[in-house]
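STRUCTURE:
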């Protein structure tokens, strides 16, 4: 069987002629109960919930429960495939094959720029930044920045205010082991000192808590990365060409901008 792999080169993204289990599609949008397995006859314990922006290989099988929806993006053909439950589909090179009595999925051509998205098996681990806000945390809810930050201005950190006017403990880090700035404040927003410049394209983490300075912080870290000038230019181009994007297009936009930022 002639299989393929995405290969990064100095001039862009190319198909090569041999891979074993590489990804061919990305889950651009999902709602409701959607699980994945190696075969349609897999045992119950071998089905796993999918995740938004997950990359998937051929021959995997998606099972959608009643009312569930999934959008698969295939960069090789530049199309999105819409799946609805309750049905099962087998992933192929450029489509999803209906199983049993499932209807033929809807296909939608997407803007050509989305074909630049690189697929891998890492669920964006190369970018290192999640597109969504973190779950519940022990500290105040962080608001911004998160994900990819397109503004060219220095970031201002904001979080939900807690009752009682507490003092907040803020930390900014390059990794969990490398805190580069820490301060106490009685406000729920914080600009960085003028002499602390953050580099575009580099991953940062921040968190805020009400723990005293000598105590261990338990709040969850939130990741972000400042967009490069090239990514900001691309964002403006996408927004001109897609003034009213649907959910899948918004997610793919975020992926494309993140990958453009970390490559520069």
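SEQUENCE:
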């Amino acid at each position: 069987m002639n299989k393929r792999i995405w290969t990064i080169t100095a001039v862009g993204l190319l198909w090569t002629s041999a891979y074993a289990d590489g990804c061919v599609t990305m889950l651009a949008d999902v709602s409701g109960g959607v699980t994945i397995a190696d075969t349609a006859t897999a045992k119950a314990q071998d089905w796993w919930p999918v995740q938004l922006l997950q990359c998937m290989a051929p021959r995997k099988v998606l099972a959608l429960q009643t009312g569930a929806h999934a959008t698969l993006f295939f960069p090789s053909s530049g199309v999105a495939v819409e799946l609805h439950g309750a049905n099962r589909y087998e992933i192929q090179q450029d489509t999803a094959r209906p199983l049993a009595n499932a209807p033929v999925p809807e296909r939608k051509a997407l803007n050509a720029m989305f074909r630049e998205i690189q697929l891998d098996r890492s669920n964006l681990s190369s970018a290192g930044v999640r597109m969504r806000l973190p779950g519940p945390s022990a500290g105040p809810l962080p608001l911004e920045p998160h994900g990819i930050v397109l503004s060219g201005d220095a970031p201002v950190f904001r979080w939900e205010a807690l009752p009682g006017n507490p003092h907040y403990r803020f930390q900014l880090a390059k990794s969990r082991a490398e805190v580069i700035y820490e301060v106490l404040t009685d406000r729920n927003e914080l600009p960085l000192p003028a002499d602390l410049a953050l580099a575009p394209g580099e991953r940062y983490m921040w968190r805020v808590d009400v723990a005293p300075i000598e105590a261990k912080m338990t709040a969850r870290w939130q990741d972000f990365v400042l967009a490069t000038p090239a990514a900001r230019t691309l964002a403006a181009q996408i927004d001109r060409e897609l003034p009213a994007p649907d959910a899948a297009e918004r997610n793919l936009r975020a992926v494309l901008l993140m990958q453009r930022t970390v490559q520069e």
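REMARK: The CA atoms of residues 4 and 18 lie 5 Å apart.
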